[in-house]
Amino acid sequence: MEELKKRILQDGLIIDNRILKIDSFLNHQIDAALIMDMGREFARRFNDIHIDRIVTIETSGIAVALATAVAMGGIPLVFARKKKSLLLKDDMYTAEIYSYTKEEAYTAVISRHYLPAGEQILIIDDFLASGAAAAGLVQMVEDAGSTVAGIGIVVEKSFQPGRRALAGKGYRVEALARIKAFEDNRPVFAE
Amino acid sequence: MEELKKRILQDGLIIDNRILKIDSFLNHQIDAALIMDMGREFARRFNDIHIDRIVTIETSGIAVALATAVAMGGIPLVFARKKKSLLLKDDMYTAEIYSYTKEEAYTAVISRHYLPAGEQILIIDDFLASGAAAAGLVQMVEDAGSTVAGIGIVVEKSFQPGRRALAGKGYRVEALARIKAFEDNRPVFAE
Asked: Which parts of the sequence bind 5-phospho-alpha-D-ribose 1-diphosphate (chains A, B) (predicted)?
């Protein structure tokens, strides 16, 4: 998605050739028009398959997931909540996720009420790096007896293991921007 | 907003005549069509004033704030982040907020980069009860040298002090559903 790459080059802040902050349009301030365009782009890329529901995770996945749900005609979406600690309840699917950025683990939870069995699910998230968050969402969808039809990512760091691990297990991953390296704190895109 | 009231009656879970959970369309699962309608309703109610920017707070304010930003023609929005603890930085506005629901305090932060001076701001949030979160957002907007042009709330618990406190200070509050009481764990609407 050319407009996204342009905005990453223009506004992205890269720290230690490792962390990309895009607080100016995605993770703190939100550019409503660009986010709605992202939703339309995901709808276009996945228009060959049927999607029943979108699953994302708080916080920064919510806006893009909503844009995608709208572009797909108003399908339901559910966002996993992040909990530091948890009284485990029978009515929730859970996944343990380690955040390499924050260097801490958390538990992602989705109520069983909002993740029925037998659906085709599109997972949406803002970043794909280690793949830990996406893998946690995949696990919850499959625990629910539904199928991961695809994984839509805004920014993929292709040099980290997430994409390869998910693709290696047969999941279809579509990323709107793929970064193959950071050089001198500038992103180098994969295509 | 009649559709919202209908959905609260149909899907809302009320606990101890005190807490309203609307996880089926706002706080966990999101009904994309209904949320976009809420955005259009806020745009209609505030169409007599100029708005430069929307300010909300993670997590559940984000979807409605995005819908409103889209309905207002794609104006910028920024969401405050909630921090448990914090190294105070010069480049952030902060507010201490006590959550009566969670019975804990947190610090809300917004980067100065995304809250410029001299703007007309619409604050959007999902619930108004004690008014603590809205008051914190108001304080940050005014610390930034901008003006609170209005406060848009999805569900107001009119029997708690938030609405009266904000209106008493002259702020314009528009709530899409106003609950004046819970009786036998059912909501009674104000109009």
From this structure: 129-133
CA atoms within 13 A on the CB side of B115: 29
Q: Report the alpha-carbon distance of residue B29 to residue B60 in Å, rounded.
A: 11
Query: How many of the other CB atoms lie within 10 Å of CB of A151?
Result: 28
* Average pLDDT of chain B, as a whole number: 95
Per residue in A60-72, pLDDT (tens digit) is: 999 999 999 999 9
What CA–CA distance (Å, rounded) separates B64 from A127? 22
Are the beta carbons of B114 and A23 separated by less than 8 Å?
yes
Whether residue A30 and residue B79 make contact (CB cut-off 8 A), yes or no, is yes
Q: Whole-angstrom distance between the N-terminal and C-terminal Cα of chain B?
A: 10
Token representation of residue A77: 């979406």
How far apart are the C-alpha atoms of B191 and B177, rounded to whole Å? 9
Decide if B114 and A36 are in contact by the 8 Å CB cutoff: no
The DSSP bridge pattern shows strands A186-189 and B13-15 to be unpaired
- Residue among B24, B28, B31 whose CB faces A79 most closely: B28
**What is each CA distance from B42 to B1, B64, B68, B76, B152, in whole angstroms?**
10, 9, 6, 15, 7
User: Do B66 and A63 count as a contact with CB atoms less than 8 A apart?
Assistant: yes
Minimum Cα–Cα distance from A32: chain B residue: B74
N- to C-terminal Cα separation, chain A: 10
Give me the interface pTM, i.e. the ipTM.
0.95
Query: What is the reported pLDDT for B120?
Result: 98
- How far apart (Å, rounded) are the C-alpha atoms in residues A125 and B105? 28
B163–chain A nearest CA distance, Å? 27
Domain definitions of chain A by residue range: 33-178
Residue set of the binding site of B: 20, 27, 129-133, 157
> What's the pLDDT at A18?
86
Q: Quickly count helices (H) and strands (E) in chain A.
A: 5, 11
**For tokens 């305090």, what's the residue?**
B105
- CATH hierarchy code of domain A33-178: 3.40.50.2020
pTM for this model (two decimals): 0.96
Query: Nearest residue on chain B to A63, judged by CA atoms?
Result: B63
A139 in helix, strand or coil?
helix
pLDDT in tens, B4-48: 999 999 999 998 888 899 999 999 999 999 999 999 999 999 999
Query: How many beta-carbon pairs under 8 angstroms link A with B?
Result: 97
